[in-house]
Amino acid sequence: MTLEQIAKLGKIEPNNENLEILTYYKTACQKWLESKEFKNSNWAKKPYPPLLNPDEVVYEKIPDKHAWILNLPLPKNYDFVLFGSHAAGMHAALPGFFTLCGVCVRAIIPKQMDIVQEGQKGSFGCYCLLHKKLLAMKKVKELGYTKKAYLQITNLILDSDAKKFYSLINASVAINIIRDPISVLRTMVTLPNFADEFTIDDDEGKGTGLFLSDEPKAIFSKNPIHYGGILDKNGNKKARALPELNAIPGWLEDREQMFHDGILYDYFKDNIKELYIRQTSDFAGGRGFYAMSELASIFDFDKPDEKDRWLFEKHVGEMKNLLPITLYANEKDELFSNEIKTNRNDKNFNKNSAKIVLCTRFNENNRLKPERDISELFSLPDPLLRVFADKPSDAVKLLRSGGLLEKTQKYIEKLSCEVLQKASVLEANRKLFNENDILEYFRKHEKERKLAATLIKEHLKYQKQKAPHIIESFKYYKEFEKMCLELDDTKL
After folding, report:
1. Is residue 487 in a domain?
2. Same domain for 375 and 292?
3. DSSP 139-175
4. Entry's Pfam families (predicted)?
5. Which domain holds residue 109?
6. Which of 40, 69, 358, 474 could form a disulfide with 180 if both were Cys (CB 3.0 to 4.6 A apart)?
């Protein structure tokens, strides 16, 4: 078997770089691809067959870029796949509930604009990113920090390599979370985002970060929270201080985040062996305690603890959009001066600061790093809030200087009060529109109504077959379905 034949079998572009990589593995590829084991296996039937035997591959010894070229499935260091649309609770309630049950490690497919790995974006870059994350996940499981782990898909990869990317994910055991699509839209319209100007890039990656000199009240009075989705004349999204129904067209066109379950099913349908469909309402209003108990029995992770029952009754949506916030506490900063003394991305300054994380009890730190919980040093206005040192060395930096500790205590107390106050404002904004307002919008906007009908029909086509009782329970969806039939003679 020649290199060109190997490339053709693996659907690999035979350019110089790819052929050079294949040359390195040529003998092993030939042995595997010409074996009876391969020809009689399910691997040979895959749309992108692996060019090495996945059962014999030591993933730690193969660069992620090479693994992609060789069509190797992503390292199976996760126990199940969790997938669904945004605004179905998969970035708010569910991660927190899983954390409370000891499933505190997940690998997430990020938005395409956030993928830059090995100089690559899209499917290739995402594969390389997940390859690294899943190898790290293996170590965390081996150390006993988590019993189970999962791969979460809420963002859809849209480039020309997407079919290959999804074929390299083992989705044999999967949970699909679905929600009334009209409620999904209502949530997306009222979904707040933290302004990028408060993003700090350090060695650990990007996240919301503040300095002791940042006045919390001044920050939140400047309204760092904005709402997206509004399209300008050029089709670009614009931020708004308050949510608007006019954001609906923008969200309908966002296939990366919205109404893509049907596409994912098409990618995974020949792969899925066990599928568990649940709806968002199963986890709301305190029902999450029982829903997670059921999933714990199925997937063999820790059942919810009775002492944590109150946490399963909490609504965490607004808090999720504000936390975690990392405070870079540095003795050179003057408390509440509101004057930035250094570039926000000055990695040397940030490295020398004590990194203190204000988060909630749902944060994975509660299970992965309980020894770094320094909440007892602070006066916190809500039992849901916690404070962690990012690393043990950060706690040392904080504690060895009484002056820095005192300033940090004052800062965290003020910051946490402002966070709670802002969360109440976000909750009020969330209630500016309800599902009936979304339905009325569609009644008056024919173009958007027809587009939504097409998207939602594709989105729920498999769930209608596999969980019709759930679809029938979607009150607002049924109203929309009736509207489309009456106004457009369209059946969903």
Report:
1. no
2. no
3. HHHHTTS-S-EEEEE-S---STTHHHHHHTS--SEEE
4. DUF2972 (PF11186)
5. 3-181+257-312
6. 474
According to DSSP, residue 115 is labeled -
Contact, 72 vs 57, CB < 8 A? yes
Q: What is the pLDDT of residues 103-118, one digit of tens each?
A: 988 888 877 666 655 5
Spatial distance between the Cα atoms of 114 and 424, rounded to a whole number of angstroms = 29
* Tokens representing residue 317 in the block: 């949506």
ω into 324 cis (within 30 of 0)? yes
Q: Side chain identity at 74, as an amino acid letter?
A: L
212 with 348, same domain: the answer is yes
Structural element, H or E, at residue 451: helix 446-459
SS3 428: helix
Residues 1, 30 contacting (CB under 8 angstroms):
yes
Amino acid in the structure at residue 468:
P
Residue 293 and residue 286 in contact, taking contact as beta carbons nearer than 8 Å:
no
221, 237 in Cβ contact below 8 A?
no
Residue 145 lies in a domain: yes
Global pTM reads 0.90
Instruction: Confirm whether 483 is domain-assigned.
Output: no
Instruction: Verify that 278 and 389 share a domain, yes or no.
Output: no
